[in-house]
Design a protein that fits this description.
The radius of gyration is 32 Å and the shape is flat. A five-stranded antiparallel β-sheet has the order 6-5-4-1-7, with no helix packed on it. A two-stranded antiparallel ribbon has the order 2-3. The protein has a domain at 31-99: Roll (SH3 type barrels), CATH 2.30.30. It has strands at 31-34, 43-47, 54-59, 63-70, 78-83, 89-93, 97-99, 127-128, 134-135. The chain is mostly beta strands and 136 residues long. The chain is built from no helices and nine strands.
């Protein structure tokens, strides 16, 4: 049932536009590489969940594992990452991360030698007449 509205109520015309992701969406549990910061330098800072308290610095090119994800209304989503070598943990944005390059395709194995084709014995079949009786 619709709620009664007086003439002083504004119409319900506010429609939220759908959010188009501007950054990559990375799955929890995946392994990614730390991307060099756009401002220059060779390290990114891992922060606490509030995004302001610095916890550790990680060198660009280091492989990390995504352990958690946190959406935010006021900014890009945060990803909790842990380095594979030293175990440093902290939060960063997807702009600081990139997917691992795909593994190189394996060399094509040599085609197996064709097997000799031998004659198989013909299968015995029985013919049926129109009445369904077997003919010999």
């Amino acid at each position: 049932m619709a709620a009664p509205r007086g003439s002083f109520s504004p119409p319900f015309t506010r429609i939220e536009p759908s959010r188009v992701p501007k950054e990559a969406v990375l799955p929890v549990g995946s392994h990614v590489i730390v991307r060099p910061p756009a401002a220059g330098g060779d390290r990114i800072t891992l922060t606490a969940e509030d995004g302001t308290t610095a916890l550790a610095a990680v060198k660009a090119g280091a492989e990390v594992e995504i352990t958690a994800w946190r959406p935010r209304r006021s900014g890009p989503a945060l990803y909790r990452v842990r380095t594979r070598t030293s175990g440093k943990e902290g939060w960063t944005t997807a702009s600081s991360l990139e997917r691992l390059p795909p593994p190189p395709s394996p060399a094509r194995p040599a085609a197996p030698a064709p097997s000799p084709v031998g004659k198989r014995p013909a299968a015995k079949t029985t013919k049926r007449t129109r009445t369904g009786a077997r003919a010999r």
